[in-house]
Specification:
Elements lengths: L16 E9 L3 E4 H12 L3 H12 L5 E4 L25 H23 L1 H4 L4 E6 L8 H8 L7 E6 L5 H15 L4 E9 L10 H9 L2 E10 L6 E10 L7 E6 L2 E6 L3 H19 L9 E4 L4 H11 L3 H14 L6 H17 L3 E9 L3 E9 L1
Parallel strand pairs: 4-5, 4-6, 11-12
Antiparallel strand pairs: 1-7, 1-8, 2-3, 6-7, 8-13, 9-10, 12-13
Helix pairs in contact: 1-2, 3-5, 8-9, 10-11
């Protein structure tokens, strides 16, 4: 009788791709909104009426404190080191801002990696750096490889100038690498020094940006991992809203990077976010009711408010987005990972029960990126 020479392992399973570690970091200089306010009023307020408007905005921002690599924002003029004590004089050039980025970005990246765990990080086979607030070549990816003393064979990539959703794009690239290479361990490092790009012209965009943005870094390790540890990556989904192209933009100028951030963004999200989430959840075979925690990038308080109302989310399921905004402000790309870390450490590890986490972030384009994770 014919006997097959092939045998099959019926217990074979597809490896799970997981976020196995996550670390975050902020610079040394902490500034409360009340400390930053006089600096901004001094520059932007033409009269007492304008000063009151700025004070109102700051008190309604949903932010208590932010961090910066610069001490100037809450220091007396005589102690400023980055800005001229007479702000009518020459403002920092793009070159000066990039020198500061070069001096500070790697230090903050290493701090986040240390919080992830140096032993784990040094197992990385691939490094992906993420940033939209500074660029150079050789860049941050090579600097990270050198700082960690990784092999010269370590593969590297950079995601530049994609804005607040770039961390999710980095996660997506890392997942693709792990699918192609079962032995891959991909270190994704997001570093943003948004406060280097303060602009003194009293435009609505500049006033809004200077009220929201801060500095921070986050690092995640993504790998094939069948253990019970970590967050399993289920799916990603992205969509572009071309009608919001001019409402969120990030452009270079001779005096730094300039943000366009109109008040129309929450209206765009109110109209288009729920259909996006429904498509993302359909891809992940989930429903809105099955989501245990929402990891929403807190681009601003009104944005989180609109999404909460639009989806009918319980406060307990989205509170971490408000919490990160309150404690750190908007740090661009690392921010959604700060929210994820808070969910992981404060809820998932404490509850010890299965959970579904859906994340979303928004950036120039207007681009929306989402992820679906599970915790066992």
């Amino acid at each position: 009788m014919f006997q097959s020479c092939f045998s099959f392992n019926l217990n074979w399973t597809i490896p799970l791709i997981k976020i196995s570690a996550l670390g975050t970091a902020v610079p040394d200089f902490e500034h409360t909104q009340d400390q930053i306010l006089p600096f901004m009023q001094n520059i932007y307020a033409a009269d007492s009426n304008e000063a009151r408007k700025i004070r109102f905005l700051y008190h309604q921002s949903g932010i208590q404190k932010r961090y910066s690599v610069l001490k100037d924002y809450s220091s007396p003029k005589e102690e400023w080191t980055f800005y001229s004590q007479n702000l009518d004089n020459a403002f920092p050039s793009l070159e000066k801002r990039m020198r500061c980025y070069k001096n500070e970005a790697l230090k903050l990246a290493v701090k986040a990696i240390e919080n992830l765990g140096l032993t784990k990080a040094r197992e990385a086979t691939h490094v992906i750096s993420v940033s939209c607030t500074g660029m150079s070549a050789p860049g941050l990816d090579l600097e990270i490889i050198a700082a960690l003393q990784l092999s010269n064979d370590t593969e590297r990539s950079s995601i530049n100038f994609m804005g607040c959703y770039a961390a999710i794009h980095g996660m997506k690239q890392a997942t693709a690498i792990c699918k192609a290479n079962p032995n891959a361990k991909v270190l994704v490092v997001c570093v943003e020094l948004c406060t280097l790009h303060f602009q003194k012209e009293a435009t609505g965009d500049n006033i809004m940006s200077s009220m929201l943005f801060a500095d921070g870094a986050a690092a995640i390790l993504i790998e094939n991992n069948d253990s019970n540890e970590g967050l399993t990556i289920e799916s990603f989904y992205a969509s572009i809203l071309p009608k919001g192209e001019k409402d969120m933009a990030w452009e270079l100028s001779s005096t730094g990077f300039q943000m366009t951030l109109t008040g129309y963004i929450p209206d765009l999200l109110a109209a288009d976010f729920k259909p996006l989430i429904e498509r993302a959840l359909h891809k992940a075979n989930k429903s809105i009711e099955e989501v245990d925690y929402w990891c929403i990038h807190p681009g601003g308080k009104k944005i989180v408010d609109v999404i909460k109302e639009n989806l009918g989310i319980e406060s307990s399921k989205i509170e971490n987005s408000y919490g990160v905004l309150n404690d750190y402000g908007n740090m661009s790309s690392p921010t959604v990972l700060f929210v994820l870390k808070r969910i992981w450490e404060n809820h998932l590890k404490a509850a010890h029960k299965p959970a579904t986490i859906v994340g979303a972030a928004f950036g120039p384009g207007l681009t929306m990126e989402t992820f679906t994770l599970s915790y066992a």
